[in-house]
């Protein structure tokens, strides 16, 4: 970035005057309202260009897949914070979104980086070698692989199967999806047993093939999970569970004095 840009930053996202508002170069009222769906508009706003119909169908599917998974840490956090501040729906949602990280929901970022190494290796033989090298290193270091494994969905994650099939059907599957399948096969070989591709692994590959930058991928999880968290908080209004969760933890984790010298 030049010194001039640092001293005088600009934004290409939105402008307005007394008569109109523009999202990038599109007039909000004349070009978008009643004419463009939310997902297409959001993708264009985030990425700066329009996506093809098949790509939009996959983004739509990804947003649905990542929206909900029951009483996960993000949903529990949202309910507990909302119990503390029932006047603030946004506080509960924000608390839940803070849980979209490298351990849950947001794991597609690191997975995408691994897939890029394999996809960028070039010819199939070189890509296979890159996948085996990566899998062997993960196993030897006893590290988990982002985008793989699930404590509930075994032997396979049905969400990943459906997303990858949809990507093939819409002609979206490309180098990153191929890299995901190579890494899956290499991990099974290195571990000596099957390890499922989970939902975020499929998401990483598909968003990579759509051309979404790695640094933006978690943003799609945030968009998706926001809807799920709002649903959790509306349910919390009608059938509160926050106090029950609090009492459950209080009973299950009793006080234990630490011994001296321990």
Automatic annotation (TrEMBL):
<dbReference type="GO" id="GO:0036440">
    <property type="term" value="F:citrate synthase activity"/>
</dbReference>
<dbReference type="InterPro" id="IPR016142">
    <property type="entry name" value="Citrate_synth-like_lrg_a-sub"/>
</dbReference>
<dbReference type="GO" id="GO:0006099">
    <property type="term" value="P:tricarboxylic acid cycle"/>
</dbReference>
<comment type="pathway">
    <text>Carbohydrate metabolism; tricarboxylic acid cycle; isocitrate from oxaloacetate: step 1/2.</text>
</comment>
<dbReference type="GO" id="GO:0005829">
    <property type="term" value="C:cytosol"/>
</dbReference>
<keyword id="KW-0614">Plasmid</keyword>
<keyword id="KW-0808">Transferase</keyword>
<protein>
    <recommendedName>
        <fullName>citrate synthase (unknown stereospecificity)</fullName>
        <ecNumber>2.3.3.16</ecNumber>
    </recommendedName>
</protein>
<dbReference type="InterPro" id="IPR016143">
    <property type="entry name" value="Citrate_synth-like_sm_a-sub"/>
</dbReference>
<dbReference type="InterPro" id="IPR036969">
    <property type="entry name" value="Citrate_synthase_sf"/>
</dbReference>
<comment type="similarity">
    <text>Belongs to the citrate synthase family.</text>
</comment>
<dbReference type="InterPro" id="IPR002020">
    <property type="entry name" value="Citrate_synthase"/>
</dbReference>
<dbReference type="GO" id="GO:0005975">
    <property type="term" value="P:carbohydrate metabolic process"/>
</dbReference>
<dbReference type="Pfam" id="PF00285">
    <property type="entry name" value="Citrate_synt"/>
</dbReference>
